[in-house]
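Could you help me review a protein record that somebody else here produced? This is what I was given.
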Amino acid sequence: MEKTLIVINGQGRSGKDTVCKIMAKYYKVKNISTVDPIKEIATFAGWQGQKDDKSRKMLADLKQVFIAYNDLPLNFVLKEAQKFLLDDNQIMFVHCRESEEIEKIVKNSPVNVITLLIKRNDKFFERKVFGNHADDDVETYAYDYIYSGNNENTEQLEKSFMQFFETQIKPNLK
């Protein structure tokens, strides 16, 4: 399998991080987010890592400021993609929320890119409105793949997602 960059998205608590951890059991994986450099800036300004609605909005707003100022999130991803080309990882996950930012990654990446939306539909998952563009509009992009699982536990998610990956995504990778 050729190195592949997977832009992964999904509403908060849909299982994106868990999917990345599962994939790391089977493949050599690098995992980053377009908001990583924004979180560093926010930490310097006093943010303490909260994942509440107020913090999510602040991070989304701050990200938009740096997109307009110097395209920091895209430049961060492209720099990490160059490193990925030289390391022994097989898959690089890039967490990205905004459709327009996903499209920039797809168009500018030096690595083969696919896009993946993670949806969760079990009885424990409750869709919600977060009150910011980044979280509320995750389903507006035309993703290459959409995984929707009824995954009440990690073991069930692992089995279901790996079957999806091996039968739907992997055969189409270069």
